[in-house]
């Protein structure tokens, strides 16, 4: 696959952003390439296009499939597995948010609940420390509940809410 200069810049930047978010650079670059591609690509083509080792491509594709960000498809007349990324940005955002919620937020909530429960039974914990743990638990629980509600809204509604931005404050009253 030929990458124009702006496509190459996009893929390279997505790789750098991914590494800042804790995702392997190759994984992010492959995701960016598949997102930009007009057609499904096979692993050898991904490897050649990005100049990444074939084994690294295979590992990265498995990780992307685990995140549900890449799907395997079959192309008539070609026995190789091909891969594509969904092009719906809202679907991508919600998929990433849900995966991060499961991998990061759920264990954090569980630990916070245990800390608050245990802390409330400890005689030597400062009241201010316990209050801060309770506040953090409440904040993350509220954020999680908000996400659960928002993620179920139709895409059109989500777009309207996003475009409203700070105008939402006017609707609900300052």
TrEMBL record:
All residue ranges annotated as the HTH marR-type domain in the record: 22-80
Q: Does the keyword Ribosomal protein apply?
A: no
Tree of life domain: Bacteria
Extract the InterPro entries matched here: HTH-GbsR_regulator, HTH_MarR-typ, MJ1563, WH-like_DNA-bd_sf, WH_DNA-bd_sf
- Record has tRNA processing as a keyword: no
Q: Give one Pfam family.
A: MarR_2
Keywords carried by this UniProt record:
DNA-binding, Transcription, Transcription regulation
Q: Which family does it belong to?
A: Belongs to the GbsR family.
Q: What is this protein called?
A: HTH-type transcriptional regulator
Q: What is the lineage of its organism?
A: Bacteria, Pseudomonadati, Pseudomonadota, Alphaproteobacteria, Rhodospirillales
């Amino acid at each position: 696959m030929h990458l124009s200069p702006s496509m190459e810049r996009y893929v390279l930047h997505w790789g750098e952003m991914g590494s800042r978010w804790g995702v392997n650079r190759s994984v992010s670059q492959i995701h960016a390439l598949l997102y930009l591609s007009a057609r499904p690509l096979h692993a050898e083509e991904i490897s050649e296009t990005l100049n990444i080792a074939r084994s690294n491509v295979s590992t990265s594709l498995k990780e992307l499939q685990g995140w549900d960000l890449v799907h395997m498809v079959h192309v008539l007349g070609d026995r190789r597995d091909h891969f594509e990324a969904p092009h719906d940005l809202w679907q991508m955002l919600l998929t990433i948010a849900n995966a991060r919620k499961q991998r990061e937020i759920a264990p954090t909530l569980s630990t916070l609940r245990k800390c608050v429960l245990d802390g409330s039974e400890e005689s030597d914990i400062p009241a201010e420390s316990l209050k801060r743990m309770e506040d953090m638990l409440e904040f993350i629980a509220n954020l999680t509940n908000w996400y659960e509600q928002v993620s179920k809204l139709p895409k059109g509604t989500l777009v309207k809410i996003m475009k409203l931005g700070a105008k939402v404050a006017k609707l609900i009253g300052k």
